[in-house]
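Problem statement: downstream parser choked on a complex file, so we are re-checking the raw output for the acetamide run. The parser issue turned out to be on our end (a line-ending mismatch), but while we're here, posting the original submission so the record is complete.
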Amino acid sequence: MSNQENIKVGLLFSASGVISTIGHSQLQGALFAIDEINKRGGVGGRMIEPIIHDAKSEPAEYARLAERLFARDGVNVVFGCYMSSSRKMVIPVVEKWNRLLFYPTLYEGFEFSANVIYTGAAPNQNSVQLAEFMLANFGPRVYLVGSNYIYPYESNRIMRELVQQHRGGEVVAERYLPLSAGMEDFQAIARDLKDKRPDFIFSTVVGDSTSLLYQAFAEAGLQAREMPIASLTTSEAEVARMGFDVAAGHFTAAPYFQSISSEVNRRCLDKYFNEFRGTCVPNMCWEASYFQVHIFANALERAGCDQIDILLPEILGSEFDAPQGRVRIEPSTHHTCLYPRVGRVNSKGQFTIVREARRAVVPDPYLVTHSLGDWSARIEELEG
Ligand code: ACM
């Protein structure tokens, strides 16, 4: 690759609005990786230059800014989006320009775009494992509560199917609240929980109101030990916002937790805090945002060019030693082989990993096979 101008990439996350906490962490993950790459000399001698836009947690704003990144900023590759509603808005723009979007967020699956690389968990890498774990350990009566948009609806549809496969499985209620819901809305949910007494709650509440659900639960005198909240999105970042005592005892399934004890993860966190002086609480979306930039840079090194037709063959099938373990981009689905884990929040605001896959699980975004046994798992005792 010639030693010319910088390689511009778009970073399209939300530093403001209802998902700003997680959006900030995704931006930080990407900037951290770019810093590492540039410090070791860039790619083929060229620096990676981030063009950063704040989509303010508004799906329409993501589409407008994606258009601007391609039309005005001259970018070929964008790293971005959290809510599925924003990804759904960006995909037509990326496809129109025939550019590439890297998407670092767990989502509901049932999607493929030739112009997207999906590096967060698909339902067979988080929902299936969470359902199996919660049903086996707490019981079959489940209460579904989510934010009012596509990911919660679709994720709940999948959870309902998994619950109904289980003996005695029953969804006792399914409720949706706006992304801007306030404490009174969550207090009403807490009253409903007291009335319905489910065995556990499956929450697809996302964004900054997540903390209100857990706070309303605690204030109502409900106990995580008896009726825990299980989530695919409540990460260390949301836990830090709501308070460790409020979050303790609840569960999340994700491929990455800060508490992973591997050398790669410990070194990465140490570098993030002590050399990069990072300002977010690292979490599953931070990690995906971090490793997908490295996957891109390594592919770019081999391709010598960031045009999709030349770059994409180098991305598909590529692997990287991520903090969660060695990940791989599956050529047939553009999704990523990841390591399902279930964690329980402890008194330090970290996740004690109570179950984890020994091997990466191949993504199955259409849930063609979703046997609850796809774990190769090591089972730990629950603490406390
Ligand atoms: C999400 O909307 N995919 C969390």
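For whoever reads this later: Residues 101 and 116 are 5 Å apart (CA to CA).
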